[in-house]
Design goal:
By secondary structure, the protein is of the alpha/beta class. It has twelve helices and 25 strands. The strands form six sheets. The chain has a seven-stranded mixed beta sheet. A seven-stranded mixed beta sheet has the order 19-16-17-18-12-15-20, with no helix packed on it.
Amino acid sequence: MTGHGTDDARPDNFIEQIIQKDNASGKFEGRVVTRFPPEPNGFLHIGHAKSICLNFGVAQRFGGACFLRMDDTNPLKESAEYVAAIQRDVRWLGFAWGERETHASDYFEQLYIFAEELIQRGRAFVCSLTLEEIRATRGTLTEPGTPSPYRDRSVEENLDLFRRMRAGEFPDGAHVLRAKIDMASPNINMRDPVLYRIRRAHHQRTGDAWCIYPMYDYTHCLSDYLEGITHSLCTLEFEDHRPLYDWVLDTLATPHHPQQIEFSRLNLEYTVLSKRMLNTLVADGHVDGWDDPRMPTIAGMRRRGVRPEALQEFCTRIGVTRSDGTVEMSSLERCIRDDLEAMPRALAVVNPLKVVLTNYPDDREEWFRAPNHPQVAALGERDVPFCGELFIERDDFVFEPPNKKYKRLSPGAEVRLRYGYIVRCDEVITGNDGEAVELRCSVDLESRAGGANAERKVKGVIHWVSARHGVAAELRLYDRLFTEPNPAALKDGRHFTEVLNPESLVIREGYVEPYLAGLAPGSRVQFERSGWFYLEPERATAARPVFNRIITLRDSWN
């Protein structure tokens, strides 16, 4: 979404087309100022990533500016922790806001002055109905609402009551300030909406200085005006709110009127992007916090090991339109895989099965030279240790091959060890449950490169780790959080938590080749035939590396 050049370049989406036309006509004097206005009531998710890339990307393309504005108008749900998380996520995605970080609370005094102006113009009144009574009198999509019995209070009485609301004379819920618009409007948002409510709650920035707080629809348009925003980019659910956005600015006759433009929000398969639902997952212990690597939050994906470049590319590929739809999870996963393709590769065994090479000398060990990537020579090479006892993947052995195309180990079968020898399974040691616990194999000592049998062909190649040299590691296998494509709208009445994937996290005790123990925390590597993994700084120690599986090598859900 970044680095698109100047406004003379071909526009990528309908929003950029609008901006180009505005610039050509001289609207906003050619300025482009956008904003990203999250509520600090939870962590940002991948849907926010689309908005971040759009708002900051548009500003970059047209040589403008983008504000990071915290919409902190509901102190009951907001915290400084969420503010810090938002800042961290936007910065990690690759965007900077300089001195343009603002908060809706910065404007509380000015918003209050504007509210008094609306009262003085006869366009707002203090209503003493309860919120339940207001909802009951708002009407329906086919029937007009009923005017409040307090709608015709005098300007003097409204000013007096509103000032006393601010002074804290009334309990929560006793009064609200409402706009006086049209109770018969076909747009329910225009039926005398609430602008202010009494709420005694400690604000994470303003403390107890205020006991009345403005509503979002009132705050948002005026914050845009005060910051000189030119193009206020919102998701489609705010389209019906645009008449109120315009009404507030037009009624106050502000000298600058930002333009609200709506685009489709991101809907993604196999996840939920509702903050209410995400909060339920956290609060009820279904996940380990907002940054759990299974969560669709930016922090969760960062902790899983996804790189910001992958999310930026995903946002570019899905585009910006006005058509609602659902993006396949495979589209995101494809971007992640493409971004990780050039990462170094290594040998690791996730679910180990021991192999003893019966004809390999006990005191012998070798070091096989292996490339760190078969196509990226710049990543160099490494030495892989080999001895008479190995670990292989349990999935690389079966007692009875399922068909003639089976290419891995079974009794009497041969495979080549990656970078090394050909081995044959001669004997299987089983446990009390009949499961294989150890394989006794013979090795063709002439089958390594340079040997007499180096060119001998066998069907399969498997990976392995030396039992003597391998490093024990915790391998956390992350997968999709839900088993249903649309958990937020299940048609059979089940709650979305009923379709959580029980295998969204599987923890294995495996082994990795020794050079991986020296990786810097935060490194990414492909375990051959297993997927891409991330050495998680939060959990890993020098003695015990912890690797998160970022993603499998291919889509295992199809």
